[in-house]
Amino acid sequence: MRILVADEFPKHHLDSLRGLGLSVDFRPGLKGDALAEAAKEASILVVRSTEVSAKVFEVATGLSLVVRAGAGVNTIDVKAASARGVFVANCPGQNAIAVAELTFGLMLSVDRHIPDNVAALRQGVWNKKRFSQAKGLYGRTLGIVGLGAIGVAVAERAQAFGMKVVGYSRSFTPERAKALGIERAESLLALARQCEVLTVHVPATADTKGLVSRQVLAALPDGATFINTSRADVVDTEALLEEARRGRLFVATDVLPDEPKGGEATFQSELGKLPHVYATHHIGASTEQAQDAIARETVRIVDQFLNEGVVPNCVNVAERTPARYQLIVRHHDRVGVLANVLDAVRQAGINAQEIENTIFEGAHAACCKIQLDSRPPDEMLERIRSRAEEIIFVDLVELRS
Ligand SMILES: NC(=O)c1ccc[n+]([C@@H]2O[C@H](COP(=O)([O-])OP(=O)(O)OC[C@H]3O[C@@H](n4cnc5c(N)ncnc54)[C@H](O)[C@@H]3O)[C@@H](O)[C@H]2O)c1
Ligand SMILES: O=C(O)[C@H](O)COP(=O)(O)O
């Protein structure tokens, strides 16, 4: 079986993939049509930020699994993968510390104007007067949007800096806030109004597009810092540009609209050029530690997929299928028994959804659960029961909606 690794990946973890019996095609930098072409030969594809378009799923019919060696899956056409029954998995949390560290790097850089300090000295300018103007982080209020793996890692570090931390996140309960030792804001606007630094850590989804809206940015106090290490799409880009141009806010961002997907390119960023903006090159996850953890998780996912048939961290398995009923058939573990059961289901014109067959010790009996999208007629159940030499027991339960 062939695995295509289309982005940088630590060498010794490529060996771990080979150790799983895979033939490894390591071709970092592949993209577009070349990626689709190379994926034709592969059963598994591993990528970082390389875009995996619908075309890849169209032409690479042998592809079974795509692993995003990172957190965000917004660069993969997950819908196209789902339409073709291809699993998509990611490595959640494995790069959270690296991103939290960069977030603090940016926060400290803004407060102390470190990049401008350095640039001035490189140009032969000494300006202690200007660069001495810093507020300090201790005691200041940090707002965190998105209290997942990265948001929590940022909160922990902010507490060590003596900052007051307030959070806003989906499904963020008062109990969770208490457990983290932080305050909880009722809304994103309420959060923005009270913080001197706002940092965002949500995924790019249809729900989060423009989440940090013009209104939210306007609610930040004058002189506040806005940090984005998640995705450019989660912010109203125009409003952010305007705030940064006016110099009312200081912006630190690791992600930019239309940023290149690969390692090197020429790229003109309007936002990145402004004096009130410190922009980095989407390097949040790029520490050796994080890439090692990500690679280990990638190997674990591939291993479990190959050897146990399960896909850890799968992001595209239906949370809810159209199934409304579950047929439970305890049966003798013999050739053709399940085929006969499914034949009865087919003859009733019912669609089977998820099917699970569990074998008991000794391999004499098994229990098969078949989820059905409508209620089967009694005759169908009788028909299955009537094969007494094969069937031990048949039951039907209605699934909770
Ligand atoms: N700059 C980088 O290199 C880098 C590295 C890793 C991750 N990221 C980005 O950061 C994102 C977050 O990563 P993570 O590991 O913390 O993910 P995560 O899934 O652990 O956390 C995301 C949090 O956002 C919350 N959330 C989701 N939708 C929301 C909404 N509409 N409103 C409020 N809260 C919402 C979730 O409840 C969750 O708590 C990733 O999806 C990725 O886009 C960037
Ligand atoms: O979502 C992620 O994991 C980050 O954005 C990292 O992207 P990268 O793997 O391209 O550095």
From TrEMBL:
Pathway: Amino-acid biosynthesis; L-serine biosynthesis; L-serine from 3-phospho-D-glycerate: step 1/3. Keywords: Amino-acid biosynthesis, NAD, Oxidoreductase, Serine biosynthesis. It comes from the Bacteria. It is an enzyme of class 1 (oxidoreductase). SUPFAM superfamilies: ACT-like (SSF55021), Formate/glycerate dehydrogenase catalytic domain-like (SSF52283), NAD(P)-binding Rossmann-fold domains (SSF51735). It catalyses: (2R)-3-phosphoglycerate + NAD(+) = 3-phosphooxypyruvate + NADH + H(+); (R)-2-hydroxyglutarate + NAD(+) = 2-oxoglutarate + NADH + H(+). Its EC number is 1.1.1.399, 1.1.1.95. InterPro entries: ACT-like_dom_sf, ACT_dom, D-2-hydroxyacid_DH, D-isomer_2_OHA_DH_cat_dom, D-isomer_DH_CS1, D-isomer_DH_NAD-bd, NAD(P)-bd_dom_sf. Residues 326-401 form the ACT domain. Belongs to the D-isomer specific 2-hydroxyacid dehydrogenase family. Catalyzes the reversible oxidation of 3-phospho-D-glycerate to 3-phosphonooxypyruvate, the first step of the phosphorylated L-serine biosynthesis pathway. Also catalyzes the reversible oxidation of 2-hydroxyglutarate to 2-oxoglutarate. This is D-3-phosphoglycerate dehydrogenase. It comes from Hyalangium rubrum.
